[in-house]
Design brief:
Number of helices: 8
Radius of gyration: 15 Å
Oligomer: single chain
Bound molecules: magnesium ion
CATH architecture: 3-Layer(aba) Sandwich
Number of strands: 7
CATH class: Alpha Beta
CATH topology: Rossmann fold
Shape: globular
Distance between the termini: 16 Å
């Protein structure tokens, strides 16, 4: 169980992702979590910097989709203007929505990454399907993790182990 909670990569911010590390591993498709990963949970639109960052990934040849547990209203209102395909009410960590995302992108598990802020939905779900999993610090920050995970022992263990590996530094870290 524990190994299924551990990501392949850790990034301290979206902007620290090193796309070439993904390309080196043959990863050309990314399934993004929405809330607290690319947009704050309580915000109705993307920050311009995030939009530019996503467009940069598209320009590098990545294909991206959003896989979110949130409602069709919220997911479509954000994904629509970006012109990025999206799966809503995903019920992550169930596999079905990830599989749908892979199909939409005409991708395969071995060339697809999941990028999200939650260990028990994004990382567990991605690892169960054999996808490359990327854990990002939530947009609300490390303090948010620290408080929201107080009673969630396994997640705290994962984050502690990552902090030992990264020595608490910012950046993009391959963990496996
Ligand atoms: Mg999230």
């Amino acid at each position: 169980m524990y190994s299924l909670l551990y990501p392949d990569m850790f990034i301290s911010s979206l902007f620290h992702l090193e796309p070439e590390l993904l390309l080196q591993r043959g990863i050309k498709n990314i399934l993004f979590d929405l809330d607290n990963t690319i947009v704050p949970r309580d915000k109705p639109k993307f920050e311009q910097a995030v939009e530019e960052w996503l467009n940069n990934l598209l320009n590098l040849g990545f294909r991206v989709a959003i896989v979110s547990n949130n409602s069709p209203q919220r997911v479509n209102s954000l994904a629509g203007p970006l012109n990025v395909p999206a799966v809503n009410r995903a019920i992550k960590p169930m596999k079905k929505a990830f599989k749908t995302g892979i199909t939409i992108l005409n991708a395969a598990p071995e060339n697809t990454a999941v990028l999200g802020d939650q260990i028990f939905t994004d990382i567990l779900g991605g690892n169960r399907l054999g996808l490359f999993t990327i854990l990002v610090v939530p947009l609300e920050g490390k303090e948010f993790w620290a408080t929201s995970l107080l009673n969630r022992r396994l997640e705290r263990l994962v984050i502690k182990k990552i902090e030992r590996r990264t020595a608490g530094k910012s950046g993009c870290f391959l963990l496996k």
